[in-house]
Please model this.
Amino acid sequence: MRFDASEEVTMNPYLPYSAVIDDIFVETEDGNLKTFRIVLENEEDRRNWTHRPGQFAMLSIAGKGEIPIGIASSPTEKGHLLFTVNRAGVVTTALHKMNVGDPIGVRGPLGNGFPVDSELKGKNIVIIAGGFAFTTLRATLIYMLEHRGDYENITVIYGARTPGMLLYKDELKQWQERDDLNVYITVDREAPGWDGLVGFVPTIAGQVKPSPENAAALICGPPIMIKFTMPPLEEVGWRNDQVYLSLENRMKCAIGICGHCNVGPVYVCKDGPVFTRAEVQRLPVEF
Ligand SMILES: Cc1cc2nc3c(=O)[nH]c(=O)nc-3n(C[C@H](O)[C@H](O)[C@H](O)COP(=O)(O)OP(=O)(O)OC[C@H]3O[C@@H](n4cnc5c(N)ncnc54)[C@H](O)[C@@H]3O)c2cc1C
Model:
């Protein structure tokens, strides 16, 4: 529980919810990406939890530290939260060693998220993702499918190095079978047993040529992928204010106080992590 309402305490924004790991799914063939299903311990906290796709939480492990991780579940998936975590260093390695039933702290939801209930409504949506950056876009897609009537055409272009490195494989198959979604899944190189698309995400985006008319693109992936995805989009008329990106600056407090993540006047933790490409280009440092 985040704070004891029976005592007259001021809510402390640094205090995490107590939570427990409820299930763990190994996502990729190398075992370095796992999805953790996490349940807040207090029933009222669980009921009251709400977030917007694209927001993140700070996950804390006693004795190890606290890290920002995007929320991979949609707010329409009630009762638990999903986080897909790449094993990178101290805290993520500790998390990867944890088991079902182990305790974990969750501070959030944090940041702004994608404007799914405002700017994106009534638009043609193009989701473009590379590697494990698909996580908050999964949350966004699930949310949009739950509110399918609020959006026009939805196109998903998602790629990974190999078939075994794709996330959410069962869901990808289900999405490919739907007739209200255009789904393009690609891998970098030919692979045994793979009869899907082959090629880098920017190449596939160039072949799909999504129309910019009444449209918004949500792009998450390594900076190099984003860099090379823009020219084919620009070629067919996309403007920077139609393109939403999610930034991953280092952050500590995650509530716009400590200044670890700020770029000029902008706090990535509080004002972001989602920005339009036009907003990113106005920042003093180039991303
Ligand atoms: C808003 C936001 C959302 C994120 N969402 C996810 C997610 O959904 N899944 C996920 O796996 N990761 C996500 N990350 C990145 C994640 O926070 C870092 O990988 C994590 O903090 C590393 O912690 P560590 O203690 O394991 O690594 P450390 O021991 O601190 O560092 C290990 C390596 O990771 C690098 N690293 C540390 N922090 C970051 C960072 N913020 N960005 C890039 N490289 C970093 C270090 O340079 C070093 O090379 C997100 C980051 C942000 C800011």
Summary: The chain is about 25% helix and 30% strand. The mean pLDDT is 94. The pocket of flavin-adenine dinucleotide is lined by residues 56, 65, 67-70, 84-86, 88-92, 132, 135, 248-251, 273 (CB under 6 Å).
